[in-house]
Amino acid sequence: MPRQKLHRDRVYQEIGEPGPGSIAVGYVRYSSELQNETSIVTQKRLIKEYLDKKGWKLARWYEEPEQSAKYDSIDDRPVFAQLLSEAGTRFQVVVCAFSNRWARSMEAGYASLSRLRRARVWWATADDRWDIDRVQQDGFDVAFAVDMQMNASYVRQLSKRTIAGKEDRARDGYHNGNVLFGYLDPEYPKAPDGAPSTWRPPRTPARPDPVTFPALVRIGELAAQGWTDRAIANELEGYMSHTARFGERYLTKDTIAAIRRAWFPREFAPGSGHGTIDTPAGELVEGKHQAAWPYELWQRMVEVKSSQYRRPMKEAQKRPHEFSRIIVCAACRRPLRVKRGGGENNPLPYYVDTSFERKLPCPTLGNLSVRSSLVMVQFGEILRSFELPNAWREAIAEQCQAASGGQDNEGERMRRRRTELDAEHKRLVSVFTKGYITEQELDEQMERIRAELYTLPIPVVQDAEKIIQAAISAGETLERMADYWNEAAADERRDMVWSILKAEGLIYDLERHVVIGLKPRAGVLPALALGLEATSMWQRREDGLWLREDYWPPKREIKHPSPPPSLTPAQQERAIMLIRQGMSLRKVAELLETSYESIHRLVKREGIELLPSVQKLTPGQLEEAFELLRADMPLREVAEQFDISHESLRRLAQRDGVEVRPRGQKLSPTLRVLTAEQRQEAIDLVNTGVPLRQVARQFGINRYSLRRLVEGDES
What we know:
alpha/beta, Rossmann fold, Hect, E3 ligase catalytic domain fold, 25 helices, 12% strand
């Protein structure tokens, strides 16, 4: 019998119901109105009865958890997305209880069925109302569209009722969803004897957690003192927070920042003692729960954080990063994040491993980094080393044909193994019928057979001609890409990288600063492997290319940062004396060669009240700073000269009516005019031997203007 041709480009395609013995899976999803196990048990029972009636073999269950079952898009439902990605390779049939358990939006419903249809997988509902062929038959397609529209309408109406209910609950002063760090879920009373089935416990506020609530209070106190989020997380080391996204994890700077921005622990009004509820409509109302941060404390927190506010990055500094979401650490396989070097003198972007910062395990230090420019150069060298032989098209065609033939042999092996398992299944049933084995022994053997059947993927029929054409097209593109790499803009290089590699497809060894692995896209792998074959540096393993260990450079010497030494009693007394004399904590820490946090803890323990930096200036110094601002000297330079915060100086200048021009309206160094006192001071500094460049920078003028000023004075 000739093999039936597959026309994947046809609009109308019939799949056909598989016969008995086909491998099937069941998809179950929590009900929006019944968030409990009862919904799942009922769905599984209906699906199992339907599979038994059809004679299909159940391989496994795909169970959508509570966290993602409420969403309807494919990307937000990881189990649903996994099912669609494995369709056609691990099973031939998928069954759900009802159409609304599959999808409640027309977009997700039709998109998922289209993917199953391309994979030649049969889909049906356990109520026998719908299957993948019936939904595209005349008449039934309209009925299915109406059914999906009714499901979507139900979700919209349910969402409206939920929003209204949450708004009413919030306006009454009760929380919605998970409680914040530092609190426990309400302790609801038990139902009284003889209570009706509709009885619901009264609304109860969240209660403080005796273990973590003191830590929550401490977070507010430290934030009000100006501690950074990272320093607070280090101070509260050992405490765990729980979120729906990450589960239990140690406090990090990110979790501290999220807690600090929350309204829930803030006192609603002075002296109320109750926290604040942020309603879904965006209004703030008084809650019923106990506040962790008094009103004056969180007001001080807001003031301190606003003074530490950093201006948004200039548009000119924003640029796409070529390997973002592509480059991963070779040790822990976590994506590296893009960060810029510290300070204005080091704006270069780096790819940084943040495992240590996020308190996640990594075989290396977890905080290593590499300059993005170095990775760009190394990837460009890999592209330049790409060289295809003369008859590369024929070689790629042979490789693809050989791979296709190997897949055919593997498919035949899997088909034979499936036949053997089916025969063993029938033999076990016959032995059980004759009474040679017990029902428990039969169930154990059947479970083993089902498990092995699930591990055997169903052979996928691939078009060898399309695979060859895609590989040849990738080879032609790679030949031209190496010449254009250095000339391309950053966004163009990013597009080039994404066209070659998969997500998280560049494995980088941070200890050696070298690319050790590439995971190209399926259509690019044959051409890239052939082009790098002449270098003898790369070897192909599975779905990637890996640098041979002979070409690995030695590990770089990494200096492990040692903790700063503890202060002696004499050093502590000296630090306290310097702080009381007005020296900043950071300068004291640098002078005594210790950390800023150590000095800050010392100040807290001694009960020294820290004044804002502007209060350390005498009236004469403050007036001198204002004169420099009136002379159009940059705000940051004036603040640095007097060792105060530029934001504090800005607020004082606005209070006293001193105009501070925006950066775009400032006079250029050539146009800036000095006062008579400033001109004389500048001339005196130059005459004493201070370099022209340093004096010009101090007064915010052009050094050529300063030279003319000095020469005119001498003449």
